[in-house]
Amino acid sequence: MAGGGIPMNTAPIRGGYLTGKALIFPISLVISLFFLWGFSYGLLDVLNKHFQTVLGITKLESTGLQVMYFGGGYLCFSPVAAEVLKRKGYKVTILMGLGFYSLGAIMFWPTAHFSTPHNAKASFGGFLVCTLVIACGLATLETAANSYAVVIGDPALASARLQFCQSWNGVASFIGPLIASKAFFTGSSQNNLINVQYVYLAVSMAGLAVAVLFFFAKLPEVEEETTRRGSVAMDATIELGVDQNGNIIGDEPLYRQYNMIFGFIAQFCYVGAQVTIASFFINYCTENAPYTSAEASQMLSYGLITFTVGRFIATALATVFESNFLLTIYCCCAIAFNAYICSGHGKAAVGVLIAIFFFEAPMYPTIFTLGTANLGRHTRRGAGILVMGVSGGAVFPPIQGAVADAANTRISYVVPLVGFCVVLAYVVFHWASHGFHIMRVKGEAVIATSLEGGALGGVVTTVHYDEKRLSVANIEEVRRGSIGAVSVKGVTGGVNKY
């Protein structure tokens, strides 16, 4: 797959977006990035418990992994990745991310090899540095891959397409704990870090293999100019992309893109909730139900399988229903399940803890799509800011760890409950501001094929028109904002928005 024999146009996509078979190869490459991210994330939650056992650290101290992973990498490095993306494009950014990812993984080998009971704290510090380097790579990959998955195809299906790509993230994330339950918690391995060396060596090799694939692949590039006005493509004579007030979509300064800012807050709280639920999953199972660490690790893999199934189901639903409506329903269910987790006991409570992964599934890609809608020329930087929202995973775990140490793990699950409530507030407001639509807007004669838009956005108003009667006068009315934007068929094999 990596050779120059791939019949793919390498020129920037100036006329719109890819459709049909042309989408298969670039989307497949993006899926490989999500797979790497998911596998690494799945291992992280298991290492949290493993380091508590081998290195003798507390629950609060073990959350240092999450702080480095989500805080050091995503919060601090995502703006750097976004700037590289804006200046150098998707391919260079992805290769940079894969380089950091592989370097951080290979650093696990010497750190684990020289770890002894006498230098346990110092060894844990070394693992934190390794995790930071991996996180910088993953933050870079997330910034590029999320944005690329959204802008490469039809914006009407942006949310469904991103959810499909991220579903493979879930596939990899349950493989991680499944392998770790055998490699870290069985036999003599449960009291040493030998297998950690070999697992992360394999992770590094996988990252390098994908980097070679991307280096030789002819990856289509989406130009910033294509997204500048917030529409999918610009005709030389019709350069519109305006809202119902005649304002150019995405032309306001970045700090006045309020939907993006609130989307960042929602993303921050969601990721914080997701990470805390997974980080203390094994502790919850061993303290609140009759499970061993190995059995709890397997239970975590079941939860991540549930998450993966939820992603694919949400992908299908997103092609029928408006994403903000779906997310409202999912948030309400997550809040109800989380409340039971805080008060329940035994295997039933663990069953509910596994089930909540299903309702988490569509939240990240949907919030990303909603938060980056109609950013126009700010699309790439906005993608970086939304990825920075992943840094919530650095803030929530220490809070939950402190609560768990002071009280117990079951009570500490009130922390993610707060995060889900914030997400619900954002998505309900977004749904209300777009008219409480339940079904996705469809039809060639309808301008806004999806009210939630995408990274490139749609338009705010919905206008029907007769293509044969569309005249220069009508176009001028659109430019002045008297009527909504229009849809013209027959360009780049899809529907272009002007």
UniProtKB/TrEMBL annotation:
A cellular component term, taken from the record's GO annotations: plasma membrane
Record-level Gene Ontology MF annotations: transmembrane transporter activity
Xref: InterPro entries: MFS (IPR011701), MFS_trans_sf (IPR036259), MFS_TsgA-like (IPR050375)
Pfam families associated with the record: MFS_1
Bilayer disposition of the protein: Multi-pass membrane protein
Subcellular location as annotated: Cell inner membrane
Keywords for the protein's UniProt record, in alphabetical order: Cell membrane, Membrane, Transmembrane, Transmembrane helix
Protein name as it appears in the record: Uncharacterized protein
